[in-house]
Amino acid sequence: MENRVRSESRSTMEGVKFGSEAAVAAAGNTNRRALRDIKNIIGAPHQHLAVSKKPSAADAKNQGAGFAGHRPVTRKFAATLATQPANAPLAPIGSERQKRNAETAFHAPSDMECTKVSDDLSVQHLSDMDEMMTNELKEIDMEDSEEEVAPDIDSCDAGNSLAVVEYVDEIYSFYRRSEDLSCVSPSYMSHQTDINEKMRGILIDWLIEVHYKLELLGETLFLTVNIIDRYLARENVVRKKLQLVGVTAMLLACKYEEVSVPVVEDLILICDRAYTRADILEMERTIVDRLEFDMSVPTPYCFMRRFLKAAKSDKKLELLAFFIIELSLVDYGMLKFQPSMLAAAAIYTAQCTINGFKSWNKCCELHTKYSEEQLMDCSRMMVELHQGAAHGKLTGVHRKYSTFKYGCAAKSEPAVFLL
Question: Cyclin-like domain location, by residue (predicted)?
Fold first, then answer.
């Protein structure tokens, strides 16, 4: 091994004048590998007409001093190269030792014979890079055009830990993926033998009044209606127990959403003692069993808060939007729309009602992921509900939103121009 290293070092010193003391010390060190074994640019035999994975020293000289290898075409690097002239040399990115080795190897006699081959390889390499950069820039342009970024609406809540700005987008992406699980068939009432959609509407309208009297949270009302619909879609219920299903669903929603839950005796009084404590507790066990204890579902209320923020709403718009969507809770025909569409259409209808013309900006469209055309059918049905809110038997929502506490939102003129 020692003779081999010394012979290699001797041939290297004879072929090229090399004055580095570090190289001489390395030649005398028996623990070092031969220079050609580690493919050092000095001392290694040159293979004519051979193409290696890394560019040769001659390629580096022709393409620009210090070009030590293929640099990944990143977005920033591609944009920089695109602004440079076609014949501009590449910026040096190699180390000083690589530059010195490249210059030394370029003047070696063995490389003089393959200058023409190196030139051809250099031209071919540059043309390949030009094509690669062109394709990369095209891909960047396509990505930017296809994915339009929604405006930031959470920067104002950066200091609010309850707003969870860091992952609020992921939360609502999950809501959009899972909202189908909270929906029911819009024709489930056809499987009921003793109740119909009008009875359901009477029950929901009465529960909205109960919710208002007990001063419960908005989330509780929407979850109550969702529990009722999901249970009725799975279980056949007789009409004398429909009210029991309603108050028990509200009790379950209160346990899930509220801090202070109404006691069972209060619900018995609300039902005019039509049911006993044992009836309510038994119905509670039945409902959670049929729903498999699944109470974590995205309701329209979840999307309302997010979409109102995207619409930069004031109190007037917020109250009018909630008035419209609570009218939708009562109507059985609105079950064919997803919760996110109900929320977006309610806000769109409220904006049109206040402004007197169609109003749906790009920020609302990007955050709700619904265009104005997609919301039109749902919005027209909401306008019809608004027109008839003060008439008929189901006027609980209209009375609630005719009070000063709710800004007399029910007295707004409906946006009949949308019809």
Answer: 205-289, 302-384
